[in-house]
């Protein structure tokens, strides 16, 4: 199972979307025939890193008619990027169980919503990868909320689940995975402070560091180990 929120949702989706190829040469975004692998993911972790480094500037597009009442960026750039890399693939075609959180803000009643492969396969709620990614990355003030017709109006998943590890763990329990067989490998970004009484800028250390944690869960007990 892979889980990710907001930018992490893009990584989770990228590692689980199958390799696919459109045979409609006119426009791969609106294809009539699609072949995809049931074994091989479309992207490696290195591929996703390269996308971040080479295409992230295209993610943030502005509108000349921008005002304080609007979001800073439009949907155009990120929608184009997601369509280019995920096409019309659906969550039920993911290669592994997938959990991507967002916030459903329809009627101003904010509720956590989980886009999952499990629900997609069960035909409870099947979405495209693009819809899930547009929803989980709709960061307030930066991007407008994202509406999925008949499903809701969504905001960035980090508003409720900045780290979706526990949501993934709970889903694994719901899927009847034995607790002693569950391990969590959680990746995140944070500021490193070697001395909690000294601010990072006082040490000349303002870099963002990637901190990796591995949590081994056995019989309800957790052991935490720095990697």
UniProtKB/TrEMBL annotation:
Ranges of residues in domain PNPLA: 1-169
Location of the motif GXSXG: 4-8
PROSITE patterns, sorted: PNPLA
Motif (DGA/G) on chain: 156-158
InterPro entries for the chain: Acyl_Trfase/lysoPLipase, PNPLA_dom
Keyword Secreted: no
Keyword Ribosomal protein attributed: no
Sorted UniProt keywords: Hydrolase, Lipid degradation, Lipid metabolism
Family: Belongs to the patatin family.
Cited PANTHER family: XYLOSE ISOMERASE
Name of this protein: PNPLA domain-containing protein
